[in-house]
Amino acid sequence: MKLLGVAVLSEHAARRRLFWFLQVTGWIGVGILSLYPLFQIFDYKTTLVILLLRVSSGILVTVGLRWVYRRIAWRDWSWWRLCAVVLMFSLLLGTADSLSTHLLSKIITSVTAPWELYSFLLLMGIILRSSVLMIWSLLYFGIKLWFETAEVRLRAAESEAAARTSELKQLRSQVNPHFLFNALNSVLAEKDDPEAVERITRELSEYLRFSLRPAGNCQILGEELDALEHYLRVEKARFEEKLIYQIDASPEVRGMRVPVATVQPLLENAMKYGRKTSPLPLRVKLSGEIMPDSDALKVTVANTGRWMEPDGPESHGIGLSNLRRRLELLCGKEASLSHTETNDGWVTVDVIIPAAFLKEEALQ
């Protein structure tokens, strides 16, 4: 809350600075535009006095207008009503401002002019000053609405980002416990073989060192593959010749940053459902490659066996749906997760991570 308050104060200070910058530069610009016609009528001293009075009074009048506009409920008005109020204020203040500055300049400079010229200058001053005040008022409301619209969009974006972050945290919290449960089952299955238990526990501890460390939304693919190899060694110790696995990824692919637990749920499903549908030995392949046509990354987990529909009695649970949602949140609609089943008894699941996401993560 304290940080939010500081941010709000900083935003208000920035708006005040912008207001005064526009005020000063705007009225100086109006004064400069008035120099040429004034020089055609008055001397240098009189022109300077009139210019200073007009610029100063313009700033004072518009500061007063700002004070009034901030205290009326103009957001609830129709446009025609707002324009009518702006027109009324502009005419009244433009007339009063022109009369007062003309009178003050006459008193200060003691310059006399024919009544016809004085009346003409006064009329032109009222028209021009009223027009400037009307333009100033419309710009004020326009900038105000633009800032408020931008603020609403920013708040909506922040809320959406917070919701996405919360959902990602929830999705990540579902992954590791589910995966570790299966690994611990492997340890229990070898409880009667102390050497196997020691070997499995060592491999499992290496995996835990990776999975239980603090992590953001993304990680190095090679680190996940190394950790999963420890898990596969746990499974290999349990099933021995009944399991054959292979990991194939170049150093370039291993060095890329991908969403957390990209391969893990795919491997979990390959092990779980491959054991149920594959002839022995169960074969599992993990691989990654850069697609030459798009520079996207394709991560593949293949296993012998048959594909089991997620809606069937042997559902894939949270694994694939969890990963699909995380890919959508982090990588956008261009990311994809698909599967194929070949006639030679292999099931392949591919994850495509778009090149734009990979480049963005490479800059982190």
Provide key terms for this protein:
364 residues, Heat Shock Protein 90, 2 domains, 5-stranded mixed β-sheet, two-stranded antiparallel sheet, 7 strands, 12% strand, rod-shaped
Q: How would you explain this protein's 3D organization?
A:
There is one protein chain. With 364 residues, the chain is an alpha+beta fold. It is 68% helix and 12% strand. It is built from ten helices and seven strands. The strands form two sheets. A five-stranded mixed sheet has the order 2-4-5-7-6. The two termini are 28 Å apart.
The helix tally amounts to: 10
Q: What ranges have pLDDT less than 50 throughout 5 or more consecutive residues?
A: 1-8, 170-175, 313-317
Largest sheet: 5 strands, mixed
Instruction: Return the CATH topology of the largest domain.
Output: Heat Shock Protein 90
Overall shape: rod-shaped
Please write the string of helix (H) and strand (E) elements: HHHHHEHEHEHEEHEEH
Query: What percent of the residues sit in helical stretches (DSSP H or I)?
Result: 55-70%
Classification by helices and strands: alpha+beta
Give Rg in angstroms. Answer: 37 Å
The count of domains is: 2
Report the CATH C-level class of the largest domain.
Answer: Alpha Beta
N-end to C-end Cα span? 28 Å
CATH superfamily of the largest domain: Histidine kinase-like ATPase, C-terminal domain
Q: Approximately what portion of the residues adopt beta-strand conformation?
A: 5-15%
CATH architecture descriptor text of the largest domain: 2-Layer Sandwich
